[in-house]
């Protein structure tokens, strides 16, 4: 008799329970879904003290481990962020239910009637780091789209994630539904992750969102289709025809507002003929940004530090900005093609032809003209919350919202037709 490991038994039981829950919820009506989500939003507020208590444990542990201020910010929940979580749930509740939507209806010449409709993906596993809001965002999106989800967060947020998942599960139970529709993995050891990635009978899709190491590990070990939400090495290009009144606010917002998120800019590319480079660098430095400068920008702003070539490939998730000076827009594009992770690229310019050339020359999930890179977000795109921002090209690219958690089934009806 083959001896099964503790890890294998644990994973099998969780996956089977999630699949059973999916079979229960896959086609429940929209009003039932919305009732659960409304209860969830209310419970997040009424149980705020529990959430803050557990989050404080994670923050204390994070500080003792020496996490950076940006990573601690990603980990932090406060009154405002809990309210934002509740608001995000209500936004998802208000979105149209994609399940059952007809995407194609046609009658063939032989009289066969075809209807292609949206159906849930099944069991969605999301593996994520640091940000406890993902537990609620992904749980709500998965539930509204008729999917069960398996959530595996990072060890740094274990207490916060546990209480948030428990609150969601309590809401499901109160409405007579299986709590396993939102299954939470409370084991964060790496050896527990690999068995999940082999569960082709139970899990339909795996979504890793986090650092480069996590993405590579999941991609190399998974037998299940993977939608990668990779790191954000985001480039912001300041063209020679950029309006200085737009440049500094866009650069500051792209870097400073929340440096620890994937849509924050990491590389600042400046055309050598842009006349206000000194003012731009001074403005960023005044906001606490550590500037890593190439020789030409360092000669303009000697208070910075010399940049290393490897810095241009780094997702800092912190108040550090790598700066590159270029002589042409073509040089800027060549630089981006080498450094970009395919997440977001932005240009600031008043030259329409330059903007069009920039947008038409690059291959990333989002390309922006004269707006902050921070707008690459499911909520900002009108999708409600998001599972993450996909940097791959298959199934979905960019913010993965409600509709992207569905696939299609084609229903055919006839009067006895057979194929000749």
From TrEMBL:
It catalyses: L-glutamate 5-semialdehyde + phosphate + NADP(+) = L-glutamyl 5-phosphate + NADPH + H(+). It is an enzyme of class 1 (oxidoreductase). GO terms for molecular function: glutamate-5-semialdehyde dehydrogenase activity; NADP binding. PROSITE patterns: PROA (PS01223). It is found in: Cytoplasm. InterPro entries: Ald_DH/histidinol_DH (IPR016161), Ald_DH_C (IPR016163), Ald_DH_N (IPR016162), Aldehyde_DH_dom (IPR015590), G-glutamylP_reductase_CS (IPR020593), Glu-5-SA_DH (IPR012134), GPR_dom (IPR000965). Residues 9-284 form the Aldehyde dehydrogenase domain. The keyword Repeat does not apply. The keyword Oxidoreductase applies. Keywords: Amino-acid biosynthesis, Cytoplasm, NADP, Oxidoreductase, Proline biosynthesis. It holds the Pfam family Aldedh. Its main location: cytoplasm. Its EC number is 1.2.1.41. One of its GO terms (biological process) is L-proline biosynthetic process. It comes from the Bacteria. One of its GO terms (cellular component) is cytoplasm. HAMAP family: ProA (MF_00412). Belongs to the gamma-glutamyl phosphate reductase family. Catalyzes the NADPH-dependent reduction of L-glutamate 5-phosphate into L-glutamate 5-semialdehyde and phosphate. The product spontaneously undergoes cyclization to form 1-pyrroline-5-carboxylate. This is Gamma-glutamyl phosphate reductase. The lineage of its organism: Bacteria, Pseudomonadati, Spirochaetota, Spirochaetia, Leptospirales.
